[in-house]
Amino acid sequence: MSDWPLAIGVLGTLTMLFFFCAGDRLIGRASGRTPWGILGFVVSQMVEKGIWFFPGSTPAWYGPSTYVSAVVAGFAGFARLQLTSAEQRANPDNNPLAANERAAAGEDRLRSYAATDDLGVLDSAVDDFRTAARQSVGHANHLVHVTGLIRTARMRYERLGRLQDLDESIEAGERASRVRGSGQARGRMLCQLSTALRLRYDHLGAADDLARAVATGREAVRLVPSRSPHFPGTCGQFGAALHSEFLRTDDMDVLEQAVAQVSAAVDWADRRGYRRAADRATLCYLLVQRGKRTGSLVDIDRAVRTGREALETIAPGAALYGTCLSNLGLALRTRHGLRAGAERGPATDDLDEAVSLSERALSTAPTDAPERAVYQVVAALALRDRGQYDTARAPDGTGGGAGPAAGDDRTGRLDLALDAARAAATHPRADVPTRMRAGLLWSDIAASGARYRDAMTAFETVIALLPRLAGRELRRADQEDRLGRYSGIAADAAACALFEGAPERAVAMLELGRGVLLSRELDLRSDIGELRARKPSLAQEFEDLRAALAEGRAEPSAGDAAHSRSRRRAEGERWDVLLGEIRALDGLADFAGPPSPRRLLAGAAEGAVVYLNVSRFRSDAVIIAPDGIRSVPLRVTPDEAEHRRRTLDAALAAGPGGEAERAAAVHEVLGWLWDALAEPVLNALKDLHAAHRGPGLPRVWWVPTGSLALLPVHAAGHRGGTRSLLDRVISSYTPTMRSLATARTARTAGAVPARRRVPLAVTMSSTPGAGPLSGAEAEARMVRELFPGTVRLTGADATRERVLDALPHHAWAHFACHTATDPDVPSRSGLLLHDHQRRLLTVEDVSRLELGSPELAYLSSCDTARTAPRHADEAIHLASAFQLAGYRQVIATLWRVEDEVSSVFAENVYTELAEAVRTGAPVDAAAAVRHATLAVRELCPNLPQFWASYLHVGC
Asked: Which of 261, 310, 330, 906 is most solvent-facing, going by the fewest CB within 10 Å?
């Protein structure tokens, strides 16, 4: 064999040795490199002389090359040493030896805390690791100490629920993630950072936290070698982050990845002859989630086995013992449920054991520990199922509808289930999502047992949590996502109130449980005249704080994101306290809140306000009229309403042609709306409408809930005759009574100056990246002919900035342009102006405008009063955005309308409005919309898709 390959191999080995020593991998202190460097030099000399393992000659260049490699490695080590020294010199607390001692003390205290639950010991452990991290900046063990700080601060958050602990944990990890280095220590730190980020996402809901949790978790798995004892824990935590991503995206592939990661952790430990309870507990939970989604008993059986193995592995009293008990109980309860669906009368062994395990889990958790609420939810589920199972199979026939007798075991179990769910929902330290789930479970158990008063209390608890669920620190998209996951709560709450004969409380729940983000914006615009007269100091603080909150809605820069979030959270907390202080003043109990019953009845003098409430418990029209608030039963179910919505959507989404089939589907929906909703309401309003003495037809404001908010209630009716709302009343919509009251207040503030009544017409006949709108130009000409001073922005002049600059100067605005809809984040829907490809004029942009008291916005565009079904109760669309901006009347559409129809409709509306302006009559856009609808209906009575889309919002 030639000496050349041998020499090259030995040279490479020496070079790596030198660089390895210079890289501070083996020795923590710089002086420790010297012996290794000397050893490397001696070995190189022995090889060169041929007296080591490979005797023989070496090439002549071998010796000099060896020296060169040593010099390069030395310079690399020197540079590394200088950089490290600079970090150490900049740190006044630099003391790596003391840092190691503090970290060791912290580990001792963590072991003591695990055994005693002494919070003082946990506080000391956090202080130890915080000090160790501060004293070790620039040293080899810094990442290890930061890892300890992340873990202990997170543990304190999990025990006490203080968000500042979780913030500290994440901030420490993010600072450390910017430190140079790679390898296992970095991977372990990133694993802990991923866990903290995932936990903050689960509890608060910021999608950025989840994205970073998944990314850092994936990087941690890459960095921690599979031979490391930390590998299974890293895989397990990454699997937990993937599970959170699955819950957000509903992507089964992500759940499969989560199961694979945690399964890998379990297999790793099994191959080495020991079991980790944490991994098995996590895998048990993930398998339950997958089994519930797929209906697979195989997964659930495996979950039960895995849960039992976790319990066998862990000692009673260990930190995760309660979690292991609770997860196994959940798996057993799920298995019973699946078997109940596949078998007649399955055995109750699983359910009984689930109840027992849940009770044991509760016994492990201190009463003030946040995880106790999670155990209480699992216990409530198991107890409810056991009670319902017995009731359904009772020989006395109570399964047919009557409840079990007092003192019956079934009643006792349901009482215990209610107690557990109630305790979890009101737990002061539990996270908001857990409290929400517990509150909904509480309401469901109570309502299913006809305990509607208890159910009302449960729903009030849940509705009070909705603003916290969509915290002010979150981006608007995250707020909408969180609220969209809990749609329909207000409808069920109102139904329970109606069972109790309390229509006023039903209205209150419909107001507080819907339009949460809308109400939040209205809070910021509350009139403080009376407050300033009564308490100037509170009025000034209110003004200062609302200015800060309004400014805080803007997206922060990347570097300021963490500070911005904590600041917005603190401002939101102070805002809630401030509103409580203001409402405690005499006469200001309704400040920045929904209208009082007295104000509701006073507002009904202009016309009845009708909530169309559809719930799984019952459905009603809740009518607010001058003589009081009452309900009218409706024979409608949520499934029926959703079926009609899908039918309408399918018909309107059909391709070109097929107008007859489309018309038939729309007519069928309109007829159903009349039979199921409109006719019962009009019958109830018969006496009120008979006494109507005003000009024109009676007015009705509709407040539909759920899927009904996406249907053309105003056009309900049958073909021919007068069995049609269009022939009986003038219809308007309002998202909430509060928004209607706000519009009425703006109307009474004074007449709109003539100079502001000059319309602004924004028309886009040709839009970059979108099809032509042939009718847009015709609409603009028509508006200008009827209102000669009309200001037009069209084509390249119609940019986002110019439109926003022009809107404050015009009380009327007309838009004829395309729209873009975002079903996932409806506030990102918007109008397509000339520069829309650079930046859209969005729902969020418009809703943040404060334009004073403009009068009318006409949105001659598609889908401007429509949002995704999951956001229907929030009414997040362009029509509500323009109303929030100040326009007290908005004309909008529920679906796409042909250009020719749009032009005819707009001409009819503006002709009537121009006559009102000419004669000095009130500008009644609702009546104009009705007349225009009738005119188009007369032209094409058999094509309701052309005339049923237009609606009026406001007053």
From this structure: 906
Three-state SS letters, 715-751: HCECCCCCCEHHHCCEEEECCCHHHHHHHHHHHCCCC
Read off φ and ψ for residue 762, nearest 5 degrees: -110, 110
The structure's pTM equals: 0.88
Q: What is the pLDDT of residue 183?
A: 87
Task: Provide the phi-psi class of 162: left if phi over 0, else alpha when psi is between -120 and 50, else beta.
Answer: beta
> Helix, strand, coil: what percent of the chain each, to 5?
65, 5, 30
Alpha carbons 390 and 395: distance in angstroms, whole number: 10
Tokens representing 923?
A: 């500008």
Mapped onto helix, strand or coil, the DSSP state of residue 820 is strand
In three-state secondary structure terms, 952 is: strand
- What's residue 390's pLDDT? 82
Q: Which two tokens stand for residue 764?
A: 């886009």
Buried (b) or exposed (e) across 589-622, using 16+ Cβ within 10 A?
A: eebbbbbebeebbebbeebbbbbbbbbebbbbbb
Question: Residue 723: phi, psi to the nearest 5?
Answer: -80, 65
The tokens describing 422, both together, are: 């109630």
317: left (phi over 0), alpha (psi -120 to 50) or beta: left
Contacts of residue 901, Cβ cutoff 8 Å, sequence gap at least 6: 936, 946, 947
- 246 alpha carbon, distance to own chain's centre: 14
How buried is 275 (Cβ within 10 angstroms: 0-12 exposed, 13-18 middle, 19+ buried)?
A: middle
**What pLDDT, on the 0 to 100 scale, is given for residue 139?**
85
Q: What angle do CA 924, 928, 933 make, to 5 degrees?
A: 150
Using left for φ > 0, alpha for ψ between -120 and 50, and beta otherwise, residue 542 falls in alpha
Q: Is-contact 614 491, C-beta < 8 A?
A: yes
How many other CB atoms are found less than 10 A from the CB of residue 104?
12
Q: pLDDT tens digits for 612-642?
A: 999 999 999 999 999 999 999 999 999 999 9
620, 498 in Cβ contact below 8 A? Answer: yes
Chain centroid to CA 486: how far?
9
CA angle 847, 851, 852 (to 5 degrees): 125
Residue listed under structure tokens 């289930």 = 417
Distance CA 800, CA 764 (A): 12
Pairing mode, strands 760-763 and 791-794: parallel
The pLDDT, as a whole number, for residue 682 is: 97
Q: 10 Å Cβ neighbour count for 649?
A: 15
